[in-house]
């Protein structure tokens, strides 16, 4: 089992949107990968279904900790402090509240995974302790705002029923105060690192980027897959469609009818304002070089043959990319701290033994 990107580095905004991927009617991946099924829910644990699929509360069972530990037990000792069993459990419950998919991982965590969670939270606590009063105030304000955003998402899922949300919080053994306190610690750790990342440094990184890494494009395409037909059949069909398009037939209409790409079919083959680096090399090359507004020759990729029409493209400005670059720099700063400082500051781990799986 692999954990998501460092918990300490997740911004409040990222945590807010994490809920959308864990419950409700999640849309399929826009790039057509189809790896996010619709109506996906965190329904039951250990493979069990929720008791009543019509009750939204049943889709969020209380997090079942995979270990038992005394509240005052020491989980991690580090220079200048420690993490207790109560702190560790609270942290995991709040992570589950912010992202139910993480809850599923927590419940089946082995000792290595529990150590990874404990290490992440230790890093967060150490960095948070370095925050000054101004950072702490900003972090708490952010946490309050983020709680309200996440609450709004849950309320939408619960039909705007405040009583259901209150019952949900009680069932999860968390409160607004607990969640805001934990998010404040996370925000402190992020904001401490952010203070060291200035605009001049980010501008240097922007200037050093390959132009392709700054380019966004709106591209309409038709994919004729070679998965269920021969290459000869696919090429013949794509050439026929190319001829029809060059005679003036509507691209969006033909894409809706013929494309084998589920990610763009309903949009008439359109991917709007997308970083070209997200596409496979051959498609990316067409998006970068094909004349705007023209139907290009068929493009061959591992998926099949594409007819591509670039509707527009532009290079993002520094101001448009600054926060994206800051996020990358933030992850790099965390990695530097984690690799060069964290393990030197940790004195000892006392990770509780996971519960043994039930025997049949």
From TrEMBL:
Signal sequence coordinates: 1-26
Domain of life: Bacteria
Ranges for region Disordered: 29-62
Keyword Membrane: no
Limits of the PpiC domain: 214-312
Biased composition annotated in UniProt, kind: Polar residues: 32-51
InterPro entries registered for this protein in UniProt: PPIase_dom_sf, PPIase_PpiC, PrsA_foldase, Trigger_fact/SurA_dom_sf
Keywords from the named record: Isomerase, Rotamase, Signal
GO MF term (any one): peptidyl-prolyl cis-trans isomerase activity
Name of the protein in its database record: Foldase
Organism expressing this protein natively: Brevibacillus panacihumi W25
């Amino acid at each position: 089992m692999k954990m998501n990107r460092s918990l300490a580095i997740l911004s409040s905004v990222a945590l807010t949107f994490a809920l959308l991927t864990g419950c409700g009617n999640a849309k399929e991946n826009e790039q057509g990968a189809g790896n996010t099924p619709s109506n996906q829910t965190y329904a039951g644990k250990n493979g069990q279904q929720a008791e009543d699929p019509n009750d939204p509360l049943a889709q969020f069972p209380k997090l079942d900790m995979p270990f038992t530990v005394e509240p005052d037990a020491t989980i991690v000792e580090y220079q200048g402090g420690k993490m207790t069993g109560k702190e560790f459990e609270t942290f995991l419950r709040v992570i589950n509240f912010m992202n139910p998919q993480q809850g599923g991982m927590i419940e089946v965590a082995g000792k290595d995974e529990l150590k990874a969670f404990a290490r992440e939270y230790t890093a967060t606590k150490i960095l948070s302790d370095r925050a000054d009063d101004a950072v702490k105030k900003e972090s708490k304000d952010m946490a309050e705002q983020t709680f309200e955003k996440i609450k709004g998402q849950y309320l939408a899922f619960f039909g705007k029923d405040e009583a259901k949300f209150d019952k949900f919080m009680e069932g999860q053994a968390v409160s607004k105060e607990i969640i805001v306190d934990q998010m404040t610690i996370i925000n402190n750790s992020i904001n401490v690192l952010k203070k060291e990342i200035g605009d001049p440094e980010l501008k240097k990184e922007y200037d050093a980027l390959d132009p392709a890494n700054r380019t966004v494009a709106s591209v309409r395409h038709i994919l004729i897959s070679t998965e269920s037909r021969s290459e000869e059949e696919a090429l013949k069909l794509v050439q026929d469609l190319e001829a029809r398009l060059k005679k003036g037939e509507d691209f969006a209409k033909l894409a809706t009818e013929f494309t084998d790409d589920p990610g763009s079919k309903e949009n008439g083959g359109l991917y709007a304002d997308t970083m070209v680096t997200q596409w496979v090399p051959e498609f990316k090359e067409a998006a970068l070089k094909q004349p705007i507004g023209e139907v290009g020759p068929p493009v061959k990729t591992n998926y099949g043959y594409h007819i591509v029409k670039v509707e527009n493209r532009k290079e993002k400005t520094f101001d448009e990319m600054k926060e994206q670059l800051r996020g990358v720099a933030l992850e790099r700063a965390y990695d530097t701290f984690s690799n060069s400082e964290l393990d030197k500051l940790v004195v000892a781990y006392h990770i509780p033994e996971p519960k043994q799986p039930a025997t049949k």
